[in-house]
Design brief:
Helices cover 23% and strands 23% of the residues. The protein is built from twelve helices and 19 strands. It has a six-stranded mixed β-barrel with strand order 5-18-15-17-16-19. Strands 7-11-6-12-13-14 form a six-stranded mixed β-sheet, covered by helices on one side. The longest helix has 20 residues. 53% of the residues are buried.
Length: 450
């Protein structure tokens, strides 16, 4: 999510790449992560007319505690059409020691940062802000740091505001739904692996102007065409082309797990199968929450993931049609080990990891979010991406697994101010590298000759 990513979920209403769920998720095109096993057994598939069990979809969203965000630093208007952080305009943020970072928050962030360091050192930073060598000293210090973690960030980092710093944060989590490896009565929704006829093309191999761009599709005769969309797949287009990794009980829960990008399937015997993002059909993600809101199907207070799911359950036929308007479809693989991986290939941690747009945030970099709700405020580490997580200061927060995680993620929609934490000296280097802004020349008045 990452892989796919994040569903108020942002994706649902708008649109992470990891393999986790975000109310929005749209599918994060990428990998997955860990979470504790929920003690209660997964709910059985409800009989027609039976009372609906509590699921990630209908658990009430947790009510947030309001907070007042710190003000952004004065900045020039964001450059129109800026596609990277370096183009959006940068200004210095507040001193790190003045930010409300708790010891526990700093400890979690330091652990995530240390885990991300190998990726930071070797990855190309598409934001245009850093190179691998910029992170060398901070990563070396992190490896041997002991004691309180807050001074580590104050010693090695500076805050940088991208554009006007105005942030919007949604949430995602690792869902657990009813599912089994082998098909049985009541478990009829296939969880597909990657099809053998899905082809990914690196367009940069054909044109330098298309460097970094990829498309997915399939070969039909002598033509390369878009891959099957959600409707075609649900109607059997993958027959003979894709393995079935597992079987889920509920198509709505499976839809939302796709948005998250990864999750856990739990059978009636308590056996758990962890699945994560393995691929995607190449079709654009459409946030069904926004569609439903624009069409007047969701009233005030219904635009959370819980509200969306409740409507889909109450209107099954129309709901199926609406879900199919999201043509994006995610393929899965069974995961070994502890748990969901983010787009960097490392496990993501609840209350610590976020998905962000790598063109505006170096993956692996810490960031501080000062939000209008206390649970979203704090130090985070960008370890994931999301299909709907695009642009400067757009953040999808990861909350782990379990009832509390899904309740927070399902209602997360926080606004405030964001600052990146970059190695000290980065802003000065970037500023010095900027060409001087040409100053307008004021024409001198002509003095008439006598």
């Amino acid at each position: 999510m990452r892989i796919i990513g994040g569903l108020a979920l942002a994706g649902l209403l708008g649109a992470c790449s990891s393999g986790i769920v975000s109310p929005e998720a749209g599918t994060r095109p990428a990998p997955t992560r860990p979470a504790p096993t929920r003690p209660e057994p997964a709910p059985e598939r409800p009989r027609p007319g039976a009372a609906l069990p509590e699921t990630p979809a209908n658990l009430p969203a947790r009510q947030p505690t309001a907070a007042t965000p710190l003000p952004a630093m004065p900045a020039a208007p964001v450059a129109t059409g800026a596609t990277t952080a370096a183009m959006a305009g940068l200004v210095a943020g507040p001193a790190i020691e003045t930010l409300p970072i708790t010891s526990d928050n700093a400890k979690r962030a330091l652990a995530a940062f240390k885990l991300s360091c190998p990726g930071l050192l070797r990855r190309t930073d598409s934001s245009g802000l850093t190179t691998g060598t910029d992170w060398t000293n901070a990563c070396a210090a992190a490896a041997s740091w002991s004691g309180d973690a807050a001074p580590f960030f104050a010693q090695w980092f500076e805050t940088v505001q991208v554009g006007n710093g105005a942030a919007f944060a949604t949430g995602y989590y690792e869902p657990e739904i009813a599912g089994v490896r082998a098909r049985r009565s009541g478990y009829d929704v296939p969880v597909y692996g990657v099809p053998d006829n899905l082809i990914e093309v690196d367009l940069g191999l054909f044109s330098d102007a298309l460097k970094g761009k990829k498309i997915r599709g399939r070969v039909d005769g002598r033509q390369f065409v878009p891959y099957y969309d959600r409707t075609q797949i649900e109607q059997g287009a993958l027959e003979g082309h894709a393995p079935v990794v597992a079987w889920a009980a509920d198509p709505i829960e499976m839809f939302f797990l796709q948005v998250q990008g990864s999750g856990r399937l739990k059978g009636p015997d308590g056996q758990v199968v962890r699945i994560g993002y393995a691929g995607q059909n190449g079709r654009d993600y459409t946030g069904i929450g926004k569609l439903m809101k624009d069409r007047g199907l969701l009233g005030p207070g219904q635009t959370s993931m819980q509200g969306i799911v409740a409507w889909l359950r109450a209107n099954p036929e129309q709901g199926r049609v609406i879900m199919r308007e999201n043509k994006s479809f995610v393929f899965f693989k069974e995961l070994d080990g502890a748990g969901p991986l983010g787009a960097m290939g490392y496990p993501v941690a609840g209350w610590t990891s976020v998905a962000a747009d790598p063109k505006f945030v170096p993956l692996g970099a810490p960031l501080f979010l000062s939000a209008d709700r206390t649970d979203a405020t704090g130090l985070w580490v960008a370890q994931d991406t999301g299909g709907a997580i695009k642009g400067a200061n757009r953040i999808d927060t990861f909350w782990g697994a379990g009832d509390d995680a899904r309740a927070i993620a399902g209602g997360m929609a926080a606004r405030g101010t964001a600052w990146l934490l970059l190695p000290k000296g980065t802003l000065a280097r970037l500023t010095a590298a900027q060409p001087p802004v040409p100053q307008p020349v004021t024409p001198q008045p002509t003095i008439p000759q006598p």
